[in-house]
Amino acid sequence: MKLKLLSILLLGLFAVSAAKAQSKTVSGTVTGKTDGLPLPGVSVTVKGTTAGTQTDANGHYNLAVPAETSVLVFSYLGYQSTEIPVAGQTTINATLTDDTRQLAEVVVTGYQTKMRTDVSSAISTVQGREVADRPVPSIDNLLQGKAAGVQITSENGRPGGNAYIRIRGVGSINAGQQPLLVVDGLQVPDDVAPQFYTTINANDIENVSVLKDAAAVSLYGARGSNGVIVITTKTGAGKDKPEIAYTFQYGTNAKIPDNFKLMTTAQKLQYEYDLGYENAEITSYLGQNNFPDGADLFNITDAQRQTVWDALIRQSHNWLNDILRTGKIRQHQLSVSGHENKTNYYVSFQMFDVDGIVVGSDYKRYTGKVNLSTQIKPWLSLSNNMSLGHKKTNELRDVYNAQNPFYAIYGYNSYEPVYNPDGTYNLTVQGFPILEALKENPETQRFLSGYNITTLDFHPIKGLNVSSSIGLTYDDYKRAAFIRPGSILDQYIGDPTAPGSKVDNGSTEFAYDWINKAIYKFDLNTDHHFNILAVQEFQKDQLDSYGLEKKGFVLSDYVSTQDNGAANTGTNTTSQSIWTIASLLGELDYNYKNKYYVTGSFRRDGSSRFGRNNRYGNFYSASLSWVLTNEEFMKPLTWVNALKLRGSVGTAGNFSGLGNYQSLSLYRFGTYNNLLTAFPAQIPNPDLTWEKKLKRDVGIDFELFNSRISGTFDYYNENTTALLLNVPVSQTTGFASVIKNVGAMNNSGIDISLNGEIIRSKDLRWSVYGNLNYNRNKITELYNGATEIADLNQLGTVKPGYAINTFKLVRYAGVNPETGAAQFYTKDGEITEEYSGDDAVILEGKSPNPKFFGGFGTNLNYKGFEFSADFTYTLGQYIFNYNKEILVSWGDQVYYPQAQEALNYWKQPGDTNVLPKPDPNNFTYDTDYYLQKASYIRLRNVTLGYTIPSAITQKYHVRNLRFFVTGQNLLTINPNNFFGDPEVGIGSEESFTTTIPGQATLFAYPTTRQFTFGVNLTF
Amino acid sequence: MMKKTYLYALILLFLAANGCKKEIDQDPHDGIPSEDAFITPDDFTNAIRGAYSSLRGLSYYGGQDNDAMTSTPDVLSDNLVLNQQGRHSQLKFYTYNYVSTDTWQLWGNAYRAILRTNFILANIDNLPDGDFKDNVHGEALAIRALAHFDLLRVYAKAYGSASDADLGVPYVTTVDFNAQPSRTPLKQAYGFVVTDFVQAIQLLGSNNGPGRIHKAAAEGLLSRVYLYMEQWQNCVDMATAAIDDAPASNALATIDEFPSIWTDETERDVLFKIRNLDADDDPIGVGYKQGTPEGVLPEYSVDYAFFQLFSDDDVRKDAYIAQTNFNGIDYNYVYKYNGRPVGDADVVDIKVIRMGEVYLNRAEAYYQLDNDAAALADLNTLRSNRYAEFTDGTETGTALYNAILLQRRLELAFEGSRFFDLKRLGLPIERSEFGDRADGSGIPVPDEAATLPANDPLFQLPIPQAEINTNPNIKQNDY
After folding, report:
1. What sign for the dihedral angle of Cα B401, B404, B409, B410?
2. Whether the Cβ atoms of residue A260 and residue A887 lie closer than 8 Å to each other
């Protein structure tokens, strides 16, 4: 049905192409006003028609114009359009003035490119230079603080780690919350996107558009509801001469210091004594130093005890120094780009190494890129964008035990030596030496990710483009984890008769995305401007994975392939899964005299992922905008350079984060007694479909005072319905939950971004920017009859009327001043000494969702010098601080290091505002005592650069030579005295049941600080 | 020429759209629709194995160091003392600090097993009548009964102390994903357990090989259920049936054979065990101890008072307990799950019902029926197969009773029985004052956890909060 519509549309377009008449040729050269250099690629059009051309590399153009032509329009990205009357001339040279107005910029909306003036939707743009040359290899992290309404939270501080991206609040409970990633027009499958963010070279990026409101995202239908991030890579267009650029960067990577102190050895020993704990070092000291049989810490004399303690204090050391290190950062990048005849090219290569702050967390990446586009015929052009990246990382366990070095640094006591007297590793109180494991249990991951998109673009008549693109995305993952024979872990978990084991697993995900697109731009007389888009798209994704494991390896560093294992462990697996999505979509833009804009869009999606009863969905949007500055009555207000009001409404869906066959009633297979088993895998739900979101937005874009002040303001209100929830069911059914489309939530808030150019002179330029998002999340409905969904991490709740994941905890009521026992509030507010999970109450207003977040910063340029500082901030979120609960325990953690704060406990009747009387048999319960507000402002990046004057460098045929230093995470403002680092992503990947970003700490890879020095050299 | 181009473009679009339509249906590569899962006899064999494998759930018989049928009931009782150098696992059970949000998660694990049996039972008539059908039918019923019985042991009162109003657990016999059943009254639920076992016994084959329930295994399990229900004559009858029907390969193990039970080198004594192979990656023994490069590190030490009850000529002593020196300290630890001669450490099959217990069930029931002679005979049969230097005992009366209970504690030590035995007998838990070290010194049980009075509410573990939250018909225990 929709196809018919499309074909009618296309046929209609052909008719328009019929009329064509020509009479004479005008030619000339276009130059820039400031430097007088020729401008290639300038669009030259005959006003009121679709006829036009572009200037060549020398800024020259030839244009056949109708006899009656009166005016030529010269327009070019970054310059103000200029209109010149023909008036019988055959040579018209034009000089274009730089345009500093924001509204003049080009915005990539995904399926097409529009002038910002023509866009009636909420789109934030980040320019490539804002993310270039940063010592951080993940693009998602680099976007933090750059775009209003886009909350970026690093998973953790691991080099090359990804970030959680939430556009305008958390839009889903269980389905995907990440935005769709589109690279050069290609929709990247959701589980491949994280690899793209970390293997695409940020220096190859031309710009990033963040699509936020319905008018922008409805075109992405079932995949658009979390917003869309559109990355466009560089093309080489507009380069008058071939440009060879080389960048080198070198620096260091280290942990940011803690804001708390562990007990000193003496304090810890006293604490242990007071709690009646004799540690193993003391036990063995007593055994080896001629103490009588039966002597223990508590029956020897004070002097003897002091002797023992002194011995332990003498051997104490700081495990941080033993386990952590300062890593190195190295980056080399070479790019060649330019425009030759009818061909644009951009080719780059990058090598990027970041050493982690412990052995075994290194990141090493190679990326290559080739973007080519060429005009084959006047009506046919071809482009191909290709990028390939390989990254190799060492992986650490992210778990709450000493297998995680970032727990180990707080888990080993300072008096425990690294090595035993015989030179072997000391197992310590944790029973596990991480330093040995980092060497003997190596785990590496390799990713090969990339994409290629080939587009054949017909433009048979002026204004019409018909194109077909085939995009391929590819992500290959290989992991090898080797537990070397004889290693400590092997001695714990291995088979003594077949020592050593190795797991090789990995996956290949390949998708193709076929996009057939027609765009037709035309005007009806001079006042009515139309732009019609019609697209047919199909994407198919296949994921194959495998896992192999063997045991019984030769004791050697090099012989570790599966072939060298003696015995299968029986866990050899492969899997395969496929999803498809087929779509038809269209968009119509109309404006009257560049004042009144109307846009409407429609999309229909069908996907294999959903239940047979609900497989297809329709999505639409409508938007309006009014450019007031194009009205006559605004002309007198010369200080208002641009003012636009806009509003949009529309729908989008969310199909990510779900299994591919989740709607089906399935029996799956396993083994018992080495024989096949079959078992029911899930509760079926044939009604399963995507989450639906109704998005509404009103906004203002403005530029004032010669465009020195510019900004946007948006108010939005988004209702998500049909939320995909793992609805818990009575476990007597044999399952814990079923996935259903139930429930609703609302996000409303404002996005503000402001830019100011305070000084704009030839030698000195100073600008500031800032953005802010205020978001209010509220769950409005759950499934039938349910009032609340408990969080599987047992910290929060999802309940109508409250923000998602609002904390629900037992309230701590301080100590009983008489006995030092911990007290709690019951549900009803009574004080009790009995802890009961039933007494947990919802702590309204306390959730991991920030109240405000954003970024601000400044740029200063003076002659060749430049300085920039970028801050990011997140305010008002609460985090459950397990790190504090463990390091400031009620005595049950006496075996392990404790923070000095733990010494502030009840000692005598009357003590209040102290920790409960510690006892090794206590239980440090999860209460709101360990829930902390975690607002922070962080100086994310400082860059100081100097460009050698070109007068000097040009003597050496160097076009540009720039030196720069950067510092990352130099300063953190922690107004709530959060215990540890308040920037929290996922506390522990392996120890939490569900991932709720920013919910809790648990010894994650810490945030790191980088200093780098770099050189940009351009020929 | 250009017109042709348009035409091609259009044709392309049509082709693309039509080609995609059938691609919208995608079937999985790793599963089959449930309606196709019960067609051939092999399907049923796979499904019944699936039911057995669910018994190996990580909070059930396959548990390691969080909650486990093989260790939690011993941690909860007087057989073990927390080892101070261990990882302090299961501390909440050791100190009776469990709450609904942090309790034994057996609930979900057991009902998963029950679902798998109910799927089989709902489709059982797809099989042609005959021995194969009867056997699978019997196995499913027996697993269903066993899982419910285990739930009752953990979450409900002892049968003997329960009134008619006391609640058991929901007895689930259908596949219903929307069900929110209330708790079946305790006595009624025990009745259903018996019904299922009785029917299973009529259907089961006499030998299904290791890792599957056969007739004698179901009879042995039912003798245990009757013992818990204090139906002494039924218990005697079932125990006798089990002893008579058991294949020779499962007969009571002799002294020479006994240690091989724990290394899976014999099937003697083992009426039913859950297979647990290296490939299953489930080292159940780590609930008791871990091998480390510096020696074995116990999680729990054997209580010294209990340890002294094992005489040196008791074959069980070395089969169950070993000594380690860790950081210069000697400990007695549970060696029972140390592993097979070849294979992963701490991985062995999980013994669910043994012939030794069947004799003890019958001895206790005979005693309760005032048949001291028969009770003594069974006790002597067992003891003569456990003690190297044994001459028949001559106990009567209370001495005989105490001897039976002692042998039960010794025989079933560290096999997940002690807590349930004290509970059903209405006895308190009274822990010794010995510490964790091999000589009884070291840190003992903290005072507040030293005793648990008889019939204390803490004998009924809290039902997991997740069930309370999702099923309004479940009444929580008063723990």
Report:
1. positive
2. yes
CATH class for the domain made up of A2-99 = mainly beta
As given in the structure block, the two tokens for residue A471 are 């995009």
Distances (CA, A) of B187 to A491, A943, B146, B170: 48, 76, 16, 12
d(CA A25, CA A156): 62
Following DSSP, what letter does each residue of A600-618 receive, concatenated?
EEEEEEEETTS-GGG-EEE
**Interface mutation vs chain B, best among A607, A732, A810, A896, most B CBs within 10 Å:** A732
Q: Which residues of A touch B3 (CB under 8 A)?
A: 14
Q: Is A584 on the interface with B (CB under 8 A)?
A: yes
Q: Is B329 on the interface with A (CB under 8 A)?
A: yes
Tens digit of pLDDT for each residue in A271-308?
Answer: 999 999 999 899 889 988 888 888 889 999 999 999 99
Q: Which residues of B touch A466 (CB under 8 A)?
A: 6, 9
> Which residue of A lies nearest to B464 if distances are taken between CA atoms?
A731
What is the Cα–Cα distance from A553 to B220, expressed in whole angstroms?
Answer: 44
**What residues does each domain of chain A span?**
2-99
A474-502 core/surface letters (b: 16 or more CB in 10 A; e: else): bbbbbbbbbbbbebbbbbbbbbebbbbbb
| A8 touches B at CB < 8 Å | no
Give tens-digit pLDDT for A326-355.
Answer: 999 999 999 999 988 889 999 999 999 999
CA dist., res. A216 & res. B148, Å (int): 56
Determine contact, residues B63/B69, Cβ cutoff 8 Å: yes
CA dihedral of A420, A422, A425, A426, whole degrees rounded to 10: -20
**B79-136 pLDDT tens trace:** 999 998 888 899 999 999 999 988 999 999 999 999 999 999 999 999 999 999 999 9
- Mutating which of B7, B60, B99, B431 best tests the A interface, going by the most A Cβ atoms within 10 A? B99
Interface of A with B in 22-61 (CB under 8 A): none
Determine contact, residues A81/A35, Cβ cutoff 8 Å: no
Contacts of A74 (CB under 8 A, 6+ apart): A30, A42, A43, A44, A81, A82, A83, A84, A94, A96
- Residues 420-459, chain B: which have Cβ within 8 Å of A? 441, 443, 446, 448-449
ipTM (interface pTM): 0.92
Distance, CA of A572 to CA of A667 (rounded, Å): 20
Which residue does chain A place closest to B105, by CA atoms? A731
A95, β-bridge pairs: A31
Looking at residue A35, its amino acid is: D
Which pTM was predicted?
A: 0.82
The CA radius of gyration of chain B, in Å to the nearest whole number, is 25
